[in-house]
Automatic annotation (TrEMBL):
SUPFAM superfamilies: MCP/YpsA-like, NAD(P)-binding Rossmann-fold domains. The chain crosses the membrane at residues 65-83. This is RCK N-terminal domain-containing protein. Keywords: Membrane, Transmembrane, Transmembrane helix.
Length: 901
């Protein structure tokens, strides 16, 4: 039972027995209600009276049920209250006779989490017995809540194994706060149990120990054969990296590589670094970088150099080639006192960091330090990036989320209960996912080379671990091929089946020993073959994916302490001394077959059969929608970037939620925003997107963020659970670029104001997406200037900065602004200052010294200048053509909007 229902069942049984007694005595002829109640109570003391006042009562079914029910209830109550050992022995006996049993040796925090997860999930286990040296009331309460039979004893004592019927258990878990004791217990279990095939799983704390002990055991070191070793630090790292996707943030934010900052580097920090390095290899990114911030950075560096020597430059050579060598930085700091805003030691972390991880092992310290970082980000001292806060102790059942909002860049991870519940540790077959992909790998290998490697059961543990690392990178491989990964019920990522045929056709035509760094794809092909233009793009993807996989594989081999040979010569390979001839740059591997092996996994992934319920996109397709909210009018207008249309499926929907004024009641605008989004999430018209991303290219205020979170909640209710909804925080602490607009007054050559307004709107959306532009500087003259102000306003972006060449006063004494020389002013070139305040703030209104001064001020304030220009006109000082010339001289980025033919 998942909860201690025995007390409630006891009360229910006693009440039912009493009611049967009342009904039975009344039916038998006892008329006095007080006598009936007394006789019914008397049943519970095993004194059943059949003679009342010399009258023999007639037995009836109600009395029979009452007296036997009272007997059972009384015995039950006595055993429960006074004989807990008898109860425990009965439960042990039931586990002996039953099936689907598991034994947990060590009921500490990990053991408790295993017991809870086994009960809640369908992992083939229905009964759980746990052994712990000292049973406390708190442990007893936890065990009772999770349906675990808890027995006090030494988990490594063979006599205890007999007492808990370990020989009958389908699965045995060993966990201890001390790794050496856990190994001792596991060895004792293996010696005691007669069957060498018994499923024994050992949970260790240290990541490095768990990674190496399986190989050491086979070689005769510590441990026992046929054990499965797990590490809590490794499980935490794998789940966190899979959730965080720092590689994707690096790609989407325009970084050169994935750069992870880890505050606190014990066993947990080291496991996170290793997992990140094994999964951060993406096409378009350079070798990943890890920055460690710790009180003892020299000790961390020495430990990392000892464990993974090939990742560092060696005096005698032997280090990895530059394209596969991660970059490490070790900074001294104490998280309690680190000043994220001003400390010069972290100046290299202020821009383009892909994520922050706080893993000091102290929950309170992690929280304080992460809050200090958040304050520095909010104060624009550091670029925003995802923050992950380790909570190792966590809480019963679930990790604290620390946030009620679905959108945010701070997350907690590592609560033992939630990690164990999601870990393969409790699965019936922990290697089901890698075993399945290994089988598909063998099929692809046989198809490509005509031979087949060892199956999963015959692989040594070192190769199994290498394959597990390879398969954890599966989703990234599919994404690098420009496809969309959908995770099936078995955990295997799948994509559109037509991509496999495309890959197969191109792959068969490539001569891999001819592929070079140049882009002349025709030179890569086998003799007398050719490719159409579309397939040439596929050939580029194949080459880049192969290089990326080779770099990742090289890093993984370095983690296993392999070193590269002096040159890529097969004769120099030595597996005993761990020297590998293929740990060289992909282009230095002259053998075509060796190069082609880096494509096998991609081919296996693309060849996966999809499930009947899956409708997949052939290629990844992104649609960006700007949602301009008018808080005062209660309206929302949607604009699709890139001249996108509402037709067709998209794999990802990126939303920019903008409002010039913060809404007073964000909840009132949710329905308005959802109506704008309806055409994009209508499941009857097209497939739901696999991901919805809320883009924050500038720091949102409190109410806009609240509105975005409310919309995200509503989207979760309307879309499938498989749709990922998250925020993308991508503003720049140093400030965003500013765009200026200069153009002609007469737009007849462009078709009028409306076409120019639409083209400017698309330019503005592109600049916001690509550069994070959040400020416009322009004039307010007829034509291009006013079209720019209108296009900017329709996107809900902040008020523009307006520049006027002249100012003066009207006949009524009110201040007026002129877009032309006041001597030739007309009603259209004269604007009252009060009217301008409806468009922009007073502080954003600037009066310049004529048109030349206006052009100079615009160029001084902007980084990007958009020119709406018809080159047929004459150049005049301060005019559009003259400003274009000056912009080129001072190297401003220039965007031209010219009349279309």
């Amino acid at each position: 039972m998942p909860r201690d229902w025995s007390g409630r069942l006891l009360i229910a049984a006693a009440t039912l027995s009493f009611l049967f007694g009342v009904l039975g005595f009344h039916t038998a002829g006892v008329s006095d209600p007080w006598e009936v109640a007394y006789l019914s109570f008397q049943l519970f003391f095993m004194n059943f009276v059949t003679n009342i006042g010399g009258v023999e009562l007639q037995m009836n079914p109600f009395l029979q049920a009452a007296r036997f029910g009272a007997l059972i209830t009384a015995v039950w109550a006595i055993l429960k209250a006074f004989f807990p050992t008898v109860r425990q022995n009965i439960r042990r006996w039931l586990r002996l006779r039953g099936k689907a049993c598991a034994v947990i040796l060590g009921y500490g925090p990990v053991g408790q989490a295993i017991g809870a997860a086994l009960w809640r999930q369908d992992g083939g286990i229905r009964r759980v017995t746990a052994v712990h040296p000292a049973v406390t009331p708190e442990l007893t309460a936890r065990a009772r809540m999770d349906g675990v039979l808890l027995i006090e004893g030494d988990p490594s004592d063979p006599r205890v194994f007999d007492r808990v019927y370990a020989g009958k258990a389908e699965r045995i878990y060993v966990s201890d706060t001390d790794d050496l004791r856990a190994i001792d217990t596991a060895v004792a279990v293996r010696r005691h149990l007669p069957s060498p095939e018994r499923d024994i799983r050992v949970v260790l704390n240290d990541s490095a120990v768990a990674a190496q002990i399986a190989e050491a055991t086979v070689a005769g070191f510590l441990g026992a054969p046929n054990l499965r070793w797990f590490s809590i630090a490794d499980e935490v790292a794998r789940l966190m990296i899979a959730d965080a996707r720092f590689d994707r943030f690096a790609l989407e934010s325009g970084a050169e590589r994935m750069h992870l900052a880890i505050v606190g580097c014990g066993s947990q920090g080291e496991a996170i670094a290793v997992e990140a390095l094994l999964t951060a290899w993406r096409v378009g990114l350079g070798p990943p970088k890890i920055t460690f911030l710790d009180r003892a950075p020299s000790a961390i560096e020495a430990r990392m150099r000892s464990r993974i020597p090939a990742w560092f430059t060696q005096p005698e050579g032997g280090a990895l080639y530059p394209a596969a060598r991660p970059d490490f930085e070790f900074l001294p700091c104490y998280a309690e006192t680190l000043d994220f805003a001003h400390d010069p030691r972290i100046d290299g972390l202020r821009a383009r960091v892909s994520g922050w991880v706080f893993a000091t092992g102290d929950d309170a310290l992690n929280l304080r330090a992460s809050l200090a970082l958040h304050r520095a980000i909010a104060a624009c001292h550091i670029d925003p990036a995802p923050i992950y806060i380790r909570t190792p102790t966590g809480h019963v059942e679930d990790a604290p989320d620390l946030s009620a909002n679905p959108l945010g860049f701070a997350h907690t991870f590592g609560s033992i209960d939630s990690v164990i519940a999601r870990s393969p540790l409790i699965d019936e077959d922990p290697d089901a996912f890698p075993r399945t992909l290994h089988s598909e790998y063998l099929k692809a290998e046989h198809e490509m080379f005509g031979r087949q490697s060892e199956d999963w059961r015959s692989l040594p543990e070192t190769k199994r671990e290498a394959n597990r690392a390879l398969f954890r990178h599966a989703v990234m491989k599919i994404e690098d091929f420009g496809a969309v990964a959908v995770i099936g019920a078995d955990g295997v990522p799948r994509t559109h089946p037509r991509l496999a045929a495309t890959l197969r056709a191109v792959d068969e035509n490539l001569a891999y020993d001819r592929i070079d760094q140049e882009s002349d794809i025709q030179a890569w092909l086998k003799d007398r073959t050719s490719l159409v233009e579309v397939d040439k793009d596929t050939a580029l993807l194949i080459r880049d994916a192969a290089i990326c996989e080779h770099n990742r594989w090289t890093t993984e081999r370095a983690l296993a302490q392999f070193l590269p040979t002096a040159r890529p010569d097969r004769r120099m390979r030595n597996d005993v001394r761990r020297l590998h001839n293929n740990m060289h740059d992909w282009f230095e591997l002259g053998d075509a077959e060796t190069r082609r092996y880096d494509v096998v996994m991609l081919r296996a992934l693309l060849s996966q059969r999809i499930e009947a319920t899956h409708l997949l996109l052939k290629k990844a397709r992104v649609r960006t929608v700007f949602l301009a909210v008018n808080s005062e009018a209660g309206t929302c207008v949607a604009h699709v970037a890139g001249n996108g249309t509402l037709r067709g499926d998209v794999s990802e929907l990126r939303l920019h939620l903008n409002a010039r004024t913060a809404p007073n009641e964000p909840a009132d605008l949710v329905s308005v925003v959802m109506r704008c989004l309806a055409p994009h999430i209508d499941r009857q018209r097209h497939l739901p997107p696999a991901r919805i991303r809320f883009d924050f290219t500038k720091q949102p205020n409190e109410r806009i963020l609240a509105l975005a979170n409310l919309v995200a909640d509503e989207l979760r209710r309307k879309l499938p659970d498989t749709t990922l909804i998250e925020g993308f925080w991508n503003w720049r602490a140093a400030g965003s670029p500013v765009v200026g607009v200069v153009g002609h007054r007469d737009l007849s050559a462009f078709g009028g104001n409306t076409p120019v307004t639409e083209r400017l709107r698309q330019v503005f959306m592109d600049l916001v997406i690509e550069k994070g532009v959040d400020q416009l500087v322009t004039g307010y003259a007829l034509g291009a200037d006013q079209a720019a102000v209108e296009a900017w306003a329709t996107l809900g972006l902040p008020n523009p900065v307006l520049l006027f060449p002249f100012a003066g006063y009207g006949d009524d004494g009110k201040r007026v602004l002129f877009t032309e020389n006041p001597s030739a002013a007309t009603a259209q070139t004269t604007i009252e200052e009060e009217d301008i305040k409806k468009i922009t703030d007073r502080s954003m209104l600037t009066i310049c010294d004529g048109h030349i001064g206006q052009a100079g001020e615009l160029l001084r304030r902007t980084n990007v200048v958009v020119f709406v220009i018809d080159r047929g006109g004459a150049a005049r000082a301060g005019g559009t053509l003259d400003t274009l010339r000056r912009a080129g001289e001072i190297q401003r980025e220039i965007i031209l909007i010219e009349p279309r033919p």
